[in-house]
Amino acid sequence: MKVISSINGMQNWSKQMRCKGKTIGFVPMMGYLHEGHLSLLRKAREENDYLVMSIFVNPTQFGPKEDLGRYPRDFGRDKKLAKLCGVDVIFYPEAKKMYPAPYKTYVEVEDLSDVLCGKSRPGHFRGVTTVVLKLFNIVLPNTAYFGWKDAQQAIIINKMVKDLNLPIKIKTLPIAREENGLALSSRNTYLKEDQRRQAIILDKALQVAVGMIQSGYKDPRRIVAKMRKMIKSQKTGRIDYVEIVDMNTLKPVKKIKGRLLICLAVFFGKTRLIDNAIICA
Amino acid sequence: MKVISSINGMQNWSKQMRCKGKTIGFVPMMGYLHEGHLSLLRKAREENDYLVMSIFVNPTQFGPKEDLGRYPRDFGRDKKLAKLCGVDVIFYPEAKKMYPAPYKTYVEVEDLSDVLCGKSRPGHFRGVTTVVLKLFNIVLPNTAYFGWKDAQQAIIINKMVKDLNLPIKIKTLPIAREENGLALSSRNTYLKEDQRRQAIILDKALQVAVGMIQSGYKDPRRIVAKMRKMIKSQKTGRIDYVEIVDMNTLKPVKKIKGRLLICLAVFFGKTRLIDNAIICA
């Protein structure tokens, strides 16, 4: 397994492999790997000749008051796990090489980036789409893999790829969860013991919502109200949003019908957790 | 010579050629070819195994009151000229295929897009960078060729390619001119006989500016004033801008020093012409 830090070095490696007719699977990450990340690596390993993962805590997707500085990092551990998953190359660039001054170019997916997490985190998705496009141009993958926990991110990246005609296939994989239902996230490491216990309510609330839809409830307001009540029953949870939205537009639906995303963001202390469920009604 | 209208068809053709290790030169155009376009085609023909040109009058780079509808088109003539220049493929897509509803994704090069022509044509360069990125992803060229008449466009595209780490080389070629100095442009066809005669002043004014700089003038205001006076001496010219700017930032300089772009946009009737000169002082 190689670690490549230089952008040219990475791009040249990929060009060589592509010239030989080899396929490249790519998993972009911020690091501090958990089972969710590993499931992406395993799938990509299965489906491609070569497997590249990137570790880059991308500054442009963090707001000025967010957790860029304290975002969990452990490159040594990530490297060991990557090797176990059969990664061929870790692309591990420096921020100043990714955004050499004066950096000016940004990609934006309109409308989809302004709702849900985009409303609470202005500029976040512009940062995500820009860095993902840069990484695609550097790693030149055939297929890139994303986790469904960041559902809005996955939907926006799919839209970018389609709109910009990128010659890349995107695959998304299901949310990995603890046995108690808590969605895996590198940010879970921030949680104190009682917060972690209380955060289990998020998955429970999603399951209740799915159950209500399956048993015929048609008014999203009633379902969202039930979910909010459940979350508020926990001492420390502070709701950012709970919404039921159309899978394509990410706009709240007025009636339960079609392919829907039930999604939420809730603060436990300073830690903002997100989770979601898809349902076809 | 092939004409390909389908996006997938074009991308697949290019993937095949790239897989065989062949190089692709690409000249994106709006059509209604003149000698400036042909010089790009000839250079690209010389330097690559295959030569692709696109003809696409891109709606997203025209303002609501601009000349999208009446922009000159003559595909039959363009096709003949392309064949004479050794073009292998003309990519000739439909607007509704390039921007299928609901289209959402745009690329923007900040600051550089807001000055000069960007000030007079809000959104123009966002339209240009977006379509050029899309065309690059569809045609997958090794090298793309642009004319220097659209100097700001060339500078912005170079910046986009660098910032987004696109694996593509950009080459720019000098402005092609009539014998009387008028810069070639598809829009020259709009000019009435007296406008065409008066438009010669643009090149003359640029030459005078270059001469003043070469003979030691240091104050850009004096040079710009001289240029404006020359242009205003013609009955029909209405100045949009005349500026002397830094080649990297496109900001007006206070003193004549370094690599500079002397650039102007002037209306003759409804026809907006641009022209420029580079100078190292």
CATH topology of the largest domain in chain A: Rossmann fold
Distance between the termini of chain A: 45 Å
Largest sheet of chain A: 6 strands, parallel
The CATH H-level superfamily of the largest domain in chain A is HUPs
Assembly state: homodimer
Query: Are there runs of chain A of 5+ residues with pLDDT below 50, and where?
Result: none
What is the H-and-E element order of chain A?
EHEHEHEHEHHEHEHHHEEE
Number of helices of chain A: 10
Q: Any idea how many domains of chain A?
A: 2
Q: Would you report the number of β strands of chain A? A: 10
Strand order of the largest sheet of chain A: 1-4-3-2-6-7
Helix content of chain A: 25-40%
Shape of chain A: globular
Structural class by helix and strand composition of chain A: alpha/beta
Q: Would you identify the CATH architecture of the largest domain in chain A?
A: 3-Layer(aba) Sandwich
Amount of beta strand of chain A: 15-25%
The CATH class name of the largest domain in chain A reads Alpha Beta
Largest interface: A-B, 31 and 31 residues
Query: What radius of gyration of chain A results from the CA coordinates?
Result: 19 Å
